[in-house]
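hey can u check if this looks right to u? its 442 residues, i copy pasted from the old doc so theres a chance i mangled smth
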Amino acid sequence: MSRRQKEGCIIRIRLGLFGADDSLSMIQAVAQEYKELVCVPVVYWDESEVIDLIRPLASEVDMWLFSGQVPYSIVKQSGEVDAPLFYVPHIGASLYRTLLQAHYTAQIPVSRLSFDTYERREIERLLEEAGIEEPIPYVKHYEGGISAQELSDYHYTLWKQGKTEAAVTCLRTAHLELEKLGMPVYRVLPARSAVEAVIQTIIRTGQMLQAQDAQIAVQMIEVDAMQAASPETFSTDDIYRLEMKTTEKLLRYAKKVQGSLKSAGPGRYVIFTTRGALKEITEGYKTVPSAEETGLLDGEVIACGIGIGRTAYEAEIQAGKAFLHAKQSGRGAWMVVFDDGTISGPLGKSVHLRYSLGGGELRQLAERTGLSAATLCKLKAILQKRGTNEIEAHELASYMRIVPRSARRILNQLETVGLAEVAGETNPYPRGRPRKVYRIFL
């Protein structure tokens, strides 16, 4: 049974709460007021440990709520978590409270404060609403993640130069670092109203995902019954019995995923079930079910395609597309095509890509390069997964499961139309020929 489940009319969501010590307790107190949520709190003290803290809980949590945008951005950019991610924004009410504290405890003018996270115009608009007309000269706005060291250096430098009297920061680790340096600093904590707003969004997302899990899913499998044959099996009766045994195994598997099985030709079968059932047995479309779960021996599955759709017909079409991609990915590969056209797989492999064939821009590039949209999408997904736009032919061949000669042809075609350039060479074997490293522009 799925972790996110329906109990009467109430959904249950295992919500990971990730944040700094001073904000997490308040967020947890608000979250516990909602009967739909089961909270799993995690405190962090350094940005470098965020992924290590998240990773062990990835399969135990349905969604994540972060106390701020920095840990949220770190996890989002890592690509390691497929669960929905949310963070509590630092809205105006949070800053009002902090400015009031600075005014009453130390009578510090706004112009003598340095700020981070917020956009300058956002602070100015807030002060205008309060009737405060003072310049805001020192604001360090950033998108995504940032290190506590970079923020603390920014604030501390201004203070040491005598330009400011205190810092206003949204990042707890920067707050602690500035306190150690002896600088006056005020921490902006999340407002309760902001926490309530994002939690309501989380619950609505949970309801949407619950409906999504009920979508129709089709699994198309090609099996090789002869994989289980012994050298003494030669008669047609023996082969027929092997095929019957394979069918019985698939019937048991279909029952496990609460689906129905039908034959689709020699050695091919189709299972009609739900998105939620297949999502669970593949652990979120990441792994291939074990032989114990499927009842099939290693090597019996030639290829498997899973399709998701709003109707049985649509799901079957998507399953056919996924099946063809699986056949191209090598024996035993499992691929998924979702209802939005996104392709994911091969499941259970170290190189697992998720990409979409949609987009007019990629279709134009396909015409320009002579490469297929699927090849360009895979290449783009590979570069994103690697976190760099540089790659050499043997690496590309390994990711795409093609021969190096084909990978070199792809890179040469991109170079011909100006979408790639040679950035250097690498020589993994001292006596071998150097390999060209290409920089890709997609």
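The mean pLDDT is 88.
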